[in-house]
């Protein structure tokens, strides 16, 4: 018999916001297919954390900036769905994987621009396209944006531009996938204390204090401020939320 459990595919699930999202979903009874870029040990730790909650999990290596690798990845997912869940589809896609490059506009190189575009926009566009046949009708997609697509801080022109593109893409996906009952939303975190961007918000006290000073709730965000919010957005109770940008920032620059 096919497994009736909901399954989420989360890119960048081995650490940070992706791991927080995976564990939060596992707590809600959702199984996880995750991707990691390079650190298999971290990926294995995430799988162990999910299994400790009584859920199933598998993890695959994927460079989300390498579009040519997506068809083979989709076949890995298809095989896992069949062998682990006796299913041919999954329910939730969370496009989370990303990198941070801080560079003033005048000094941003074409190589850095292309790297950000490939991972944060082109990769999301074509990975979602590639996985569409595997997403169940009535499923959900959450794309990760950033508070930086609403407010502006020097050094993030390229990164934030990609996130702005993601927010437009989200609305188009919601429109075009609506006939299949698939809801598509954007979650836009504020500044979060993780290893993202070299761990600047987490490790640089001056930056951390600045973020706290411009945030209504008076501190920088933590991964577990974001993961559970994404998990809650994917629950059945929130199924009528569609084509929205939801900022989860504690009230930055309000």
Question: Would you kindly provide a brief summary of this structure?
Answer:
With 254 residues, the chain is an alpha/beta fold. 43% of the residues lie in helices and 17% in strands. The longest helix is centred in the middle third of the chain and has 22 residues, at 110-131.
Task: Describe this entry's structure for a reader.
It is a single chain. The protein is of the alpha/beta class. The protein has a single domain (7-248), classed as NAD(P)-binding Rossmann-like Domain (Rossmann fold, 3-Layer(aba) Sandwich), CATH 3.40.50.720. It is built from 8 helices and 7 strands. It has helices at residues 16-27, 40-52, 70-85, 110-131, 157-177, 200-203, 205-213, 223-233, and strands spanning 7-10, 31-36, 57-61, 90-95, 135-144, 183-189, 245-248. Strands 3-2-1-4-5-6-7 form a 7-stranded parallel beta sheet, with helices on both faces. Helix 5 links the parallel strand 5 and strand 6. The protein starts with 6 loop residues before the first strand and ends in a 6-residue tail after the last strand.
Count of distinct strands = 7
CATH architectural label:
3-Layer(aba) Sandwich
CATH-derived topology: Rossmann fold
Summed over residues and divided by their number, the pLDDT gives a mean of: 96
The end-to-end distance, rounded to whole angstroms, is 51 Å
Radius of gyration from CA coordinates: 17 Å
The total of helices stands at 8
Helix/strand class: alpha/beta
Biggest sheet, open or closed, and with what strands and sense? Answer: 7 strands, parallel
Order of helices and strands: EHEHEHEHEHEHHHE
CATH superfamily: NAD(P)-binding Rossmann-like Domain
- Structurally, how many domains make up the residues? 1
Strand order of the largest sheet: 3-2-1-4-5-6-7
Low-pLDDT segments? none
Please give the CATH class. Answer: Alpha Beta
What share of residues are in beta strands? 15-25%
Helicity, as a percent range? 40-55%
What best-fitting shape do the alpha-carbon axes yield? globular
